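User: Fold both of these, please.

Assistant: Here is the first one.
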Amino acid sequence: MLGGYAQNSQMEKLGSMLNDGQREQTRITVEGTKLFDNVTGKKNLKQMETFAGPGAELVDIGLKDSKGRAAPLTHAQLCSLYMHLQNADSREHLLNGGLTIPDAEEYNRGDIEKAYQKGQTVKIGMLTDSTGNPMADTVIQAVEKAMTDYDRSGSRT
């Protein structure tokens, strides 16, 4: 037999399994693409460019670094912060530990590694309730106000 092929052999079964796996991967990719088309489709290219990465639009929601300078966020970082604030454990960590924000200039140049090396941990200033516990509502409101419709379409919880 040329090439060792035999009907119903282990090699034929292995080949069929690989083909089936490739077909399933393609099916999942197509379904996933359709699921996120309202955010990542061709009609949203301009919004995607301003959402994250080099040249992304920066939003100032009032966060300050340790030197008192504004610490703006990209829309992607804003959405990430919004989603973290929806989880009680994450919210507690952000209120007590802060949020590390990359250097906006380096980030916009595309040097993400350097941006995080130069980044700072920002303490999220909160109002406190009558017992002195921090209230996340103020920062959640600031984040929600700064979010665009495009941001909201990808951040549904």
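And the second sequence with its predicted structure:
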Amino acid sequence: MSCMVLWKKYMHKEATVRIMLIELFEKKYYQDYSAQNRFIAIYNNKDEPTQFECGFVFFTDENFVGIFSISPSGEPNGLRIICNKQIFRIDLDNSYLKDLTQKYAELGCPSSDLSETFKIIENDILKSVFEFSMSSKRLLTVQLHNSDYDFIEGFVDEYGDDYCILHSGENDTDDYSHTIFQTEAITYISIK
């Protein structure tokens, strides 16, 4: 049974189905796709159902999927962390992904510095992202509650088990505004 058929069959139980999609992907495809660096497309915004993220999956757990993102031109495009509860579709091996794979190959299969330097700490993706952002002084873009209007950009100042503090500015040392948010509200994180 394909992911789409599974989704349609259980559409009335959206949250459960979304988690089932990730579980199905993990059971049937994750090993092959991660070991072979095969692209997948993840759809996670019901308000914009044609938007998706493409890339290599490098992490899954009960809350998040992590991918090394690839741009439409086949170039590395940063790291994305996507909340499982927001995922409503996963595409594998479609014509777009095959074309993207060809573009990526034509570029010599470039790797991102993120794929070389980012490491998972204690099997905790949020801790890993926050630590990486702090140590590498990388800007984070965070989406809360799947709102297209609630993106926060900044550098990680501090974090705990259930919160994070970002500050905005031109670089990681500027003294600009700070934002404190609950980590349970995170639906998407991007690092470039």
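The radius of gyration is 17 Å.
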